[in-house]
Amino acid sequence: MVKLHNEMLFTAELLEEIREQFAFVNMDPLKQKKRLYFDNAGGSLRLKRTIEKFAQFDLIPDHPQRNHEAAKYLAEVERKGIEDTRIIFNAENGSIATYLTASQAIFEITGKIAENIEGTNIVTTALEHPSAYDSAKYYAEKTGKEFRVAKTNPVTGGVDAEEITKLIDSNTCFLSVIYASNISGAILDIETIVKEARKIKPDLFIIVDSVQHAPHGIIDVEKTPVDVMNFAPYKFFGVRGCGVAYLSERAASLPHHRLFGKENSDLQLGSPVPAHFAAISEIVDYVCWIGSKFSNDQNKRNLYVKGMKKIALHEKALLEIMLNGTDKVRGLRSIPGVTVHLDYEDLSKRDFIVAITIKHLDFPEAVRAYEAENVIVYDRTASSIYSKRMLESFGMEGAVRISPLHCNSVEEIEEFLEVTERIAERNESGL
Ligand SMILES: Cc1ncc(COP(=O)(O)O)c(C=O)c1O
Q: Are residues 146 and 273 both part of a single domain?
């Protein structure tokens, strides 16, 4: 396994270069002391350049839709940012639109499809984030359509393609499905889901929530020709305050709120924010920079894919170490008092998220115990609207969610395992 790890992990030099580009990678931002930040699924570590570029361009007061030099400069920043966003989605056609959050993107676009596409039912899954689930439910009720929910698979932590396709028929208005779960980390087989669903209804509209998966893997609307995909820059090494969506040509041309003087496919309302696009360009350039360490390809999408594949490989190696340990420390699977949930063997089907329970500690207590050891993780409990439905679908009461990032090192995972062992040992007796 060690040899395999060495092939999968970034070299020490490259990892050092990567870490230098992130803020607070091993530092508490307030206390200025060492910490492990393992809540990247809640908001990822930031690439410093995304924030710097955001500030640099947002300081400029000029309106990008004017004709003077500074205005044209900002318009060019925006144009390039949209082009780079297309690199992330691999979308040569269709539209790119920004919203205040990824949730807002899904609600708006789900509404457009539900209100304009014929059909008597809407299909989604029990694994969705509330933004996708609740928007599908809201519009099913509003338009009088049947609301159908595919069940989860407690072994894989995902949803099987057949569970979804068996709910689809020629009267399905749209399918809304998550790419990867922000609770279990399970990556759904979107390629098969799209292919099989469209065998049943060839022109089925499909919405895919990629907020969790986009920072850890490749998304590709050419390969999986869906109508809507989104991501959230703040979970993708970037800035808060923006949700980004791709819309297919037919989705973008449905009746929508718009300024009639603009192209029908232009979904932007109000003044553009070049700074957000500048920050997205920095994310894309960063992933391409990793790609360029392994390839001489000059094509930007190819470099991006290479970089993302390397990110995913490094994360898989760290995930394997977290589960099985090293010669120095035990992995989560063998620490007494620790239960790893939804622990599917095939790691290629998992993003870097692990859900655990520590015996005799409730979830908020466990999170506090980690914080006392300068480790940030998050408790997912059935009392939260962001977790309840998904946890119950797996028959779970809750979990401590651990979500590191590709800029973490083997040593940090070992440190985390040592901390976990200490916490579990301290609480073993339950006294
Ligand atoms: C899978 C998934 N989808 C959607 C969202 C919503 O993103 P936003 O906070 O930008 O609305 C989240 C946020 O936690 C998420 O994890």
A: yes
